[in-house]
Amino acid sequence: MNPLEALRTYALLGIPAGLGFGLSLEPPPALQRFVAELDLIESGYVQYLGLNHALRLSQPRFMAPFRLMLLSKLRVVFESAAGEVDQWNRTASAQVDTQLGERRRAFRRRNEALERIQLATGELEQRIVELDAQDAALQLFLLRIDKLAEALRMQAPPESDAQDTIAPPITPPGPALRQQAHA
Q1: Would you tell me how many other CB atoms lie within 10 Å of the CB of residue 12?
Q2: How many CB atoms lie within 10 A of CB 43?
Q3: 172 in Cβ contact with 139 (< 8 Å)
Q4: Which of 21, 49, 68, 72 meets the CB 3.0–4.6 Å disulfide criterion with 16?
Q5: Which residues contact 12 (CB under 8 A, 6 or more apart)?
Q6: CA distance 139 to 145
Q7: CB 87 within 8 A of CB 29
Q8: Radius of gyration of the chain from its Cα atoms, rounded to whole angstroms
Q9: Residue 140: closest CA among 152, 130, 148
Q10: pLDDT per residue over 1-48, tens digit each?
């Protein structure tokens, strides 16, 4: 493997693999036929570059058509090779683009899920604060009821029948009962 092939393989497989992409490497386009076409053009035009034709090519009326013909043939070969390399590059890039699109969608979904979780967390925290406030209000209410019941007991006549009919004092639930209620 030549250094250019090693660099291409690393660029298309090594770097993306380190980022979590799974790419398959397409074989590079076969450029040997273009080299063969260039060799054919060279062998066809080398005869015009000898000493016999040097004087003729030094004249503008012969040089301009010769140059245009040679350039047009070379342009066709190089543009064909560039087209194949570009098509191969688009194939390799399409894999990356597809996987990037999938990752973008996955990140967008994760971000939306995180936003929903954060919103729900905020709502739950607000609801917990409301429940704690209600719990505190109920504790005060129970304490007040207990004081009122105690005051009624004190005002009641000390009869034995009266004690049986009066309910025992209501005690507010302790911290253990509150924790069980929250669980």
Answers
A1: 20
A2: 9
A3: yes
A4: 21
A5: 23, 25, 92
A6: 10
A7: yes
A8: 45
A9: 148
A10: 566 566 666 666 555 565 666 666 677 788 899 999 999 998 888 877
Tokens 């004092």 — which residue? 169
96 token code pair = 């990356």
CA–CA separation, 183 and 179 (whole Å): 6
Spell out a b/e string for 145-171, using b for 16 or more CB atoms within 10 Å of the CB, else e: eeeeeeeeeeeeeeeeeeeeeeeeeee
Q: Which two tokens stand for residue 182?
A: 């929250």
Q: Is the pTM of this model over 0.85?
A: no
Written as six digits, the tokens of 72 are: 């047009």
Q: Which residues contact 152 (CB under 8 A, 6 or more apart)?
A: 166
Q: What is the pLDDT of residues 79-115, one digit of tens each?
A: 999 999 899 888 877 877 888 888 899 999 999 999 9
Give the list of residues 6+ apart from residue 62 with CB closer than 8 angstroms, or none.
Answer: 56
43 to 23, 31, 54, 122, 174: CA distances (angstroms): 41, 19, 17, 80, 104
CB-neighbour burial class of residue 95 (10 A; exposed 0-12, middle 13-18, buried 19+): middle
